[in-house]
Amino acid sequence: MGWRLKIGQAAGIDVFVHWTFLFAPLYVIYKSWQGSWAVMGIMMVLLVCFFACVLLHEFGHALAAKFFGIQTRDIIITPIGGLARLQGISQQHPLQELVISLAGPAVNLLLAFAFVAYLLLTSRDFVPDQIDAFPQILLWANMALCVFNLVPAFPMDGGRILRSLLALFLPYTAATSFAANLGRIFAILFVAFGIYVREFPFVLIGSFVFFAATAEMQFMRDLTITNVTKPD
Ligand SMILES: [Zn+2]
Q1: What pTM, to 2 d.p., does this model score?
Q2: Is the pLDDT of residue 229 over 70?
Q3: What distances in angstroms separate CA 206 from CA 7, 47, 54, 75, 125, one per listed residue?
């Protein structure tokens, strides 16, 4: 995974930040360049809060996996999201993959509900009226994290949910191949959208999804070939 910095450990899982994460604050500086130092500072704090929500999302996956006795090797934070590396998730139990994949977006939904409750209790508006309206911004950020991750763009959570649902009725390789092909279509749409609105992160996420979906298909194909050549 290249150079990375350990930032802590929770529930026995090491948390790392990948060196490419440096691009996230650089992107914030680029975006808030015209504003004041105060604006840039607030954007930086928002960035940290946003990635804290991403980290909690990954712990949602990791703790759901733990419930099924599946270990998490580590959690890595990258500029395009987090990655919980699970060890030995079984092809024989699509329902486990379904629950584990749902657990991440579920955490963001719970966080969004918590911010809604806080805003209701303090009788404030849900719409952020200024740049430092943290509870409002984080409410919408968590809603966005939940919805975006549920897009069936394998290997994003939504794609994994789709694969596990298909795997209940289809062979695992067929389910993976269908989900991965759909993932590649979404990946191309992400890239096209990113170019259209001139938002580089979408291009990056789209490219990542495309190559990751292709790699997963290749992996399944190799697995099938190995199974054929070694019938034992
Ligand atoms: Zn996730």
Answers
A1: 0.88
A2: no
A3: 27, 21, 18, 21, 34
Residue-range domain boundaries for the chain? 151-220
Which structure tokens are listed for 178?
């269908």
CA of 44 from ligand 1 middle (Å) equals 23
CA of 100 to the centre of ligand 1 (A): 9
Q: Helix, strand or coil for residue 28?
A: helix
Name which of 96-100, 126-130, 167-171, 226-230 the model is least confident about: 226-230
What secondary structure does DSSP assign to 31-49, as a single string?
HTTTS-HHHHHHHHHHHHH
Distance 212 CA to ligand 1 centre (A): 14
Between the CA of 14 and the centroid of ligand 1 the distance, in Å, is: 17
CA of 171 to the centre of ligand 1 (A): 24
CA of 113 to the centre of ligand 1 (A): 18
